[in-house]
C-alpha cells in the first residue's frame, strides 16, 4: 500500500507549496476513512440482509402454521360432511320406505272404506273395520271365523301395526 500512496502525491509538492509528507498523510487518511466507511456500509448491508432473512423465516413459520390450521379445519369439515351425508342417506331410505308404507296403508283404508260403503255397513258395530258385526261372533262353529280373526288385536288393528321400521343402512355407503 505504500507504493500506491506515492502515486496519490499531489503535484503541488513539486511546486514547493506543501510538504510531500503532509500530502501522503492526507491521502493515507482519506484512504483509511474510505476503508472504514466501506466496512461500515458492508456491515449495515449484512445486517439488512440478515434482518430480511429473519423476516422471511418468520413469515415461513407463520404461513406453515396457518397452513396446518387450514388442513385441520378441512379434515374436520370433510369428516362432518361424510357423517351428514351418511345420515342423509339413511333418512332418505327411511323416507322412501315410510312413503311406500303410507301409500299401502292409504290403499288399504280406501279398500276398507269402499267395501264398507258397498256392503251398507255404517261402521258402528264392526270389529276392526272388516265388515263383521258383533252379532256374528261365535255363530260360525267351524272355526273359520276364529282362525281369520286370530291376528287381530282386541283393541282394534293388526298385531303388527305399531312395529318400528328400521332402515337398512349397510348398503348405503
Structure, explained:
The protein is 66% helix and 0% strand. The chain has 4 helices and no strands. The radius of gyration is 52 Å and the shape is rod-shaped. Residues 1-17 and 134-142 have low confidence and may be disordered. One of its GO terms (molecular function) is transcription cis-regulatory region binding. InterPro entries: bZIP (IPR004827), bZIP_plant_GBF1 (IPR045314), bZIP_sf (IPR046347). It comes from Noccaea caerulescens.
Spell out the key features of this protein.
single chain, 173 residues, mainly alpha, 66% helix, 0% strand, disordered N terminus, transcription
Number of helices: 4
Indicate the overall shape.
rod-shaped
Strand composition percent: under 5%
Give the low-confidence spans: 1-17, 134-142
**Average pLDDT score:** 75
Largest sheet: none
List SSEs in N-to-C order. HHHH
Alpha carbon gyration radius: 52 Å
Protein structure class: mainly alpha
**CA-to-CA gap between the ends?**
86 Å
The residue fraction in helices comes out at 55-70%
Please tally the β strands and state the result.
0
Summarize the structure.
With 173 residues, this protein is mostly helical. The protein has helices spanning 2-7, 12-15, 20-119, 144-148. The protein is rod-shaped, with a radius of gyration of 52 Å.
Amino acid at each position: 500500500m505504500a507504493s500506491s500512496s506515492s502515486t496519490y502525491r499531489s503535484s503541488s509538492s513539486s511546486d514547493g507549496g506543501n510538504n510531500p509528507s503532509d500530502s501522503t498523510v492526507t491521502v493515507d487518511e482519506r484512504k483509511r476513512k474510505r476503508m472504514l466507511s466501506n466496512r461500515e456500509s458492508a456491515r449495515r448491508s449484512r445486517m439488512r440482509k440478515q434482518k430480511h432473512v429473519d423476516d422471511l423465516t418468520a413469515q415461513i413459520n407463520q404461513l406453515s402454521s396457518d397452513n396446518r390450521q387450514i388442513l385441520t379445519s378441512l379434515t374436520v369439515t370433510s369428516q362432518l360432511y361424510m357423517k351428514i351425508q351418511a345420515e342423509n342417506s339413511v333418512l332418505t331410505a327411511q323416507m322412501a320406505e315410510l312413503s311406500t308404507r303410507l301409500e299401502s296403508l292409504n290403499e288399504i283404508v280406501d279398500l276398507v272404506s269402499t267395501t264398507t260403503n258397498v256392503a251398507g255397513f255404517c261402521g258402528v258395530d264392526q270389529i276392526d273395520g272388516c265388515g263383521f258385526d258383533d252379532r256374528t261372533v261365535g255363530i260360525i262353529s267351524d272355526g273359520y271365523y276364529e282362525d281369520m280373526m286370530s291376528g287381530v288385536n282386541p283393541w282394534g288393528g293388526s298385531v303388527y301395526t305399531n312395529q318400528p321400521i328400521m332402515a337398512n343402512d349397510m348398503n348405503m355407503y
